[in-house]
From TrEMBL:
Transmembrane segments: 33-54, 66-85, 97-116, 123-145, 151-171, 178-199, 214-232, 241-261, 267-289
Record protein name field: EamA family transporter
Pfam families registered for this protein in UniProt: EamA
Protein's membrane topology: Multi-pass membrane protein
Length: 300
């Protein structure tokens, strides 16, 4: 898979997640947030299972114990990020949550330097800031005073960055991106359902009321989109992946207009354009620079 193909796959994952915001918002009308996380990832586990079995049949060898530990760590980061985001929404606005969650485009390159001692291509830094500013404009261009929910959402953004870095490390090292998907989905399903039993009410009627959203989020948003991410990140870096996955904000706004009759302000359209420019810069600028300085490798 080429880097262009990998980034296209990440863009598709962003589009699926953008549409998934609608399912997430309507599911909360009948089902608690933690139960929703547990059930959607239970469905995602079933989606990933046949692909993981196929991958195992064609693998060169078994997964190493250290990689299994890494898969579990990735699942813990994913569950924690999803949980902090959902709980944070109880005491913050959707606008603030959308912008603060999108800060993972800035946290990811920072954590890549701090944790992995890898310096991303210089274009990542202005592109990350551009994408963050675009998300800010797309979410309304205003920001309310910080609340507890805002602080939880900032923690969520950091945890999303940790998850992306874990995917980049363990997917590439193990060569088993679908096995990674299966394990992280299973971890989220078990922890979500266990926490739901402890902290949230549940009923068959609540599950039936949110079943379409659970199935969509489980099959598409959790199942396919995260598998796309895990496969694509074998061929690109975590900071670059964060830029392309930030397109979820753009697609969320687009689907909100098409499916829910929402409107985008003029500032929001500027934000869409800025996000698009950031993605183009990350994809094209290193190639143009490489062509200008032939023979000099450029890592993005």
């Amino acid at each position: 898979m080429t880097r262009v193909q990998a980034n296209t796959l990440l863009l598709l994952a962003g589009a699926i997640w953008g549409a998934g915001f609608i399912a997430q918002s309507t599911a909360m009308e009948t089902l608690g947030p933690i139960w929703f996380i547990g059930l959607r990832f239970a469905v995602a586990t079933l989606v990933a299972l046949p692909f993981a079995l196929w991958e195992k049949a064609h693998a060169d060898g078994p997964i190493r114990p250290n990689d299994i530990g890494g898969f579990i760590l990735t699942g813990l980061a994913l569950f924690a990020a999803a949980a902090f985001q959902q709980v944070g929404l109880l005491t913050t606005t959707v606008t603030n949550s959308g912008f603060l969650t999108g800060l993972y485009v800035v946290f990811t390159p920072i954590l890549t330097v701090l944790l992995l001692r890898r310096r991303p291509h210089w274009v990542i830094w202005p592109a990350a800031l551009l994408a963050s500013f675009g998300i800010f404009l797309l979410s309304g261009g205003t920001f309310a005073a910080l609340t507890l929910g805002d602080m939880l959402t900032i923690v969520c953004a950091v945890l999303w960055s940790v998850q992306m870095i874990c995917v980049g490390v363990f997917s590439g090292r193990s060569g088993r991106p679908v096995a990674l998907s299966l394990v992280q989905f299973s971890v989220c399903a078990v922890l979500g359902c266990a926490a739901g039993l402890l902290f949230e009410p549940i009923s068959l009627a609540a599950i039936k009321g949110a079943l379409p959203e659970i199935l969509y989020a489980g099959f598409f948003s959790s199942g396919l989109a995260f598998i796309f991410q895990n496969v694509a990140q074998r061929y690109t870096t975590a900071p670059q992946a964060a830029i392309f996955l930030s397109s979820e904000a753009l697609f969320a706004a687009l689907f909100g207009v098409l499916l829910l009759g929402e409107t985008i302000s003029p500032a929001g359209y500027v934000g869409c354009a800025i996000i698009f420019v950031a993605m183009l810069a990350v994809e094209l600028l290193p190639v143009l620079l490489r062509e200008r300085h032939q023979g000099t490798p450029v890592e993005v």
